[in-house]
Amino acid sequence: MFGFLNIYKPNGITSHDVVAVLRRITKIKQIGHTGTLDPFAEGVLPVCMGKATRLIEYLKDDKAYIGTIQFGKSTTTYDIEGEAVNFSDKQILLHEVKNCLHSFEGEIEQIPPVYSAIKVKGKKLYEYARTGENIEVPKRKVLIDKINVLNFDTEKQQAEIYISCSKGTYIRSIANDLGEKLGVYGHLIKLVRVKAGNFNIDNAITLENIKTIDDVAKNLIYPTEYLNYPKYSISDSEKNLIINGAKININAPDGICILIFFGKIISVGECNDKIFIPKKVFI
To answer: In 53-91, which positions are buried (b, 16+ CB within 10 angstroms) versus exposed (e)?
Structure first.
C-alpha cells in the first residue's frame, strides 16, 4: 500500500491513536503522520501509508486553522485543558480584536507553550513543567500569512479566528499573546486545522468511515497528486539505471524533481546541471 490519506482527526484522541487504528485495520506497520495535533484539537491530519512515509519531507508544510479564543482568563497550557492562572473582568469589542490582530501578521517571534513537546537541553518542555522546574523557553520565528476574525461573540467574549501560517506555529500561543496584548488574558477553547499543505478539510475522511482495508484503499491518494515538484517520465532503460542507484541525464531545471515510469513514482531526487541524482528510489 503506497499513498496518502487525508484523515479528519476528532477531538479527544491523539495523532498517534489515529496511526494505531490504521495499523490495526491494515496490519501495516509503516504508517506515519505529519503535523501532530493536540488531543483536544481536531481537523486535517495527513497520513502516509507504506513506503509513502519516505515522502513526508517533500510535502508542503504550511497550515491553516480556525481557533476559538475565550477572553477573560489565561491558563497554564494556553488552552482549555490547563489550570486558570489569570483573570480579567474587562470587556472588549470586535474592533479592538481586529486592530490587535494586525500585530501578528508577517514574521513574528513566538514563545511556545511550556506544555509542549519542544526539546530544550534534551528534555521536552512539558517534562520541565510537570516537575515545576523553571526553564527559559527560546523564542522561535514563525510566519503568519493571514489572520482575521470570523466571528465575535460580545456577550461570551469569544473570538473565532482564521490563521494561515507556517509550520511550527502554536495557535495556543497566539491565543495567550492576543489576550495579553488586549489586557484581558485569553486561552484557546477550540481548534480545527482546516488545511495542511495540499490536504484540505473539505475532502478529509473520518475514522468512522474507515473500517476495513478496502476503505483505506479506496481513499488512498497517489503521491503525485500532492507533491508539488516537476515530474518527468523516463524510459525503461533509464528506470533500470535509477533502481541501481545510477545518475541519469534529464532535461530539467536544477532542484528537486520526480521521475515517473508509466504513471508510477520511481524516484525523487535532485537535478544539478541536467544530471539527476536519486535520493529516494521506489521499486
So the answer is: bbbeebbbeebbbbbbbbbbbbbebbbebbeeeeebeee
- Residues involved in catalysis: 38
* Chunked mean pLDDT (size 10), the chain, 283 residues: 96 94 96 90 97 96 97 94 94 97 95 66 60 71 97 98 95 96 97 97 95 96 94 95 94 94 96 96 92
pLDDT (0 to 100) of residue 95: 97
Three-state DSSP class for 186? strand
CATH second-level architecture of 231-281?
Roll (2.30)
- Predicted confidence at residue 126, as pLDDT, reads 59
> Helix H segments across the chain?
15-26, 94-101, 125-131, 171-182, 213-218, 236-243
3-59+198-225 and 63-193 share one fold? yes
pTM given for the model: 0.91
What are the residue boundaries of the structural domains of the chain, listed by start? Answer: 3-59+198-225, 63-193, 231-281
Question: CATH number of the domain at 63-193, please?
Answer: 3.30.2350.10
Contacts of 164 (CB under 8 A, 6+ apart): 62, 63, 64, 144, 145, 146, 147, 195
pLDDT value, residue 39: 86
The pLDDT, as a whole number, for residue 139 is 81
Name residues whose C-beta falls within 8 Å of residue 131's C-beta, 6 or more positions apart in sequence. none
Residues 6+ apart with CB under 8 A from 240: none
Identify the CATH homologous superfamily for domain 3-59+198-225: Pseudouridine synthase (3.30.2350.10)
Report the C-alpha gap between 45 and 9 in whole angstroms. 6
